[in-house]
Fold this protein.
Amino acid sequence: MRKIDSLFQKNEKKYWLVYTIIFVLITAAVFSFFTFSGRTLVRRLDAWMQHYKALIYYARWLRSIVMNVVENHSFSIPSYSFSMGYGSDIITTLHYYVIGDPLNLLCLFVPVRYMYHLYGGLIILRLYLAGISFSCFCFYMGRDRKSTLTGALVYIFSGFSLCYSVINPYFVNPMIYFPLLLLGVEKILKEKSLVYLSGWYFCLQSAIFICSFDSVSGISSVRARI
């Protein structure tokens, strides 16, 4: 225990290194089942019918914009598509599924045949970022590194995160935003800083509503589908 304590007390770089190593080990243990059983993290129903296909469409849409710039030297953003139902605005339709999350921009560099790897990798990346934001909040609140690491691991590998990250990967995003929201509030209270946080407050309310609604009203049907 003394060696672990001394390791944490040297500098924060050691913390991030230890956090990353432990995260990789636990992730490998938790999600290796999918690899060995020949399964992906693209769950049926919403994940397959909505989020995964939206990610593929988003990748093709982004590539069309880039290719138009490279080949025709013209920058234009297609805003309407008749392939969505009877026709729909692209940005309005996809703003929740893919466009609103900057991590999905990585799909630009991934071929469609490998998109399921990116889809699963983004789920794991979101969990990793959730632990980072949680740790940043704890450090700002003066917590020691060992307790912060323990709390971060419990936070990102809780039943909610492991269950809902596969059901709907965007339910993990509030886990990234929430500690940052608390950090912003604490900075306002302690440093008397004027920061506009209405957007974060709306995100908090949305996250609470989504989590409470799914936990109370939909948990039985979710378990039945799993």
Notes: The longest helix spans residues 46-72. Confidence is low (pLDDT under 50) at residues 1-10, 213-226.
